[in-house]
Amino acid sequence: MKKILIFIFIGFLLIGSKPFWEDSVQPIDSSPSALMSTIDSLKDRSDVPVAIRTLIEQLYSLLPSSSSTPPEPEQEVETPELHPPEEQLFSVHHIELGNTRAEVEQNLGEPERRTLNEYGVHWEAYHDNYQNFVMVAFDDEDIVRGLYTNQDLISSSTDIELETPKSLVREELGTPESAIRKVLVQYTLNDNDEYDLFQVDSMYVTLFYDKHEDNTVTAIQIIDKPLEQNKKELYAPASEQLKEGLEYQLFDITNAARVEHNLSPLTWADHAKETARSHSKDMAENHYFDHINLEGQSPFDRMAEDNIRFLSAGENLAYAQFSSIYAHEGLMNSAGHRKNILGNTFTHLGVGVAFNEESHPYYTELFFTK
After folding, report:
1. Average pLDDT, the chain
2. What pLDDT score does 23 carry?
3. What's the chain's Rg over C-alpha atoms?
4. Which residues belong to CATH 3.40.33.10 in the chain?
C-alpha cells in the first residue's frame, strides 16, 4: 500500500508542479534522491498550490530516504615516478616517439584495446581499469608514432606537466601554430584557445587546456611529423572500422577523465550505442545538430522507444571535431557536457558515431543509470 501511495504521489507531484520543472530538459533524473530534492524545493514554496503542499506534508515520510552513495573508484594503482625524457622533448608514461613495441609492453603489458584512428593506424589503449591511461600508435614496424594521455603521466625536459598554466606553456614553447597545411589547403586551427599545437623538431605536440581549471594543461597528444603529413585531409575517410574506433576511443578517454577526477569508470552499453548511432546518423543525413530530432523526440524519448530503462540520463553531442580526442576535450570545456562526463550518479555509457558526406563525424554520448 505504501508503494502505491508513493507512485500516486509522484505522479501527482509531476503533474501539479509542471510549471516549476518544465524548463529542465537535460539531464533527467527520476531516482529517489532526485525526487526528494525536488520535493524539498517545493514543499515550502508559497507559490505552490496549498493542496499540493498539504499532500507533500502528509506523504513526505512515505518516500524512501536516500543514504546510498556513488560507487567508490577501484583501488588506486601506483602512479609511476616521472623523470625527464631521454631523447625527446616530451614523454608519456616514460614512452617516447621512436620507442619499440617491445619496450612499451615490457613496461605496460598488453593493450586493453586496439582501434583504428584518423591517421590510418591504431590507437592501442594501455591502462589498469583506466588508471595510468595512455594511448599509443605504432607504425607497421612497431615503432611508436603517436601518444596521448589525459592523466598525470606527462614528463618533459621543460617545466611542462599536467596542470601547467597555458601562459607557462607558451613561455616554454613559443607561439603555437595558427594553421596546418594538408596538400594544397591550409586549415585554420583553434579559434577558441582550448588547445595549442606546436611543431617541435620532428613532431607535432598538442596541449589541451581545461577552462574550468584556470586554463591549465589537461591532456597531451604527440604525433610524429611524417604521420601527420601523411594524413592528406583534415578529416579521415569515413569507414565502418573508423566509426567503431572513434566510438571506443571516446568511451575510453571519458573513463580515463572520470578516474583522473576520482570517479568510477562507466560500463559500456551496447544497446545505448545503437540508439546513439541512430541519432548521429539522423543528424548527419538530415543536416542538423540538436538534442531534439526532427520528429520532436528528446534523448529520453529515443531511449524509451529503444527499451532502455534508466533512472537518470544525459546526452552529449559533438560535431566536426578532428577526432575523439578533440571531441572529448571540447566537451570537457563546456559546463553542461562536463557535468554529464563527470556525473557521479551515472553508471553506463553508449557512444554512437556517424559521418556526413564530407566525412565529418557526428558524436552522440548517452549517459545513464539503470
Report:
1. 85
2. 27
3. 23
4. 90-233, 254-369
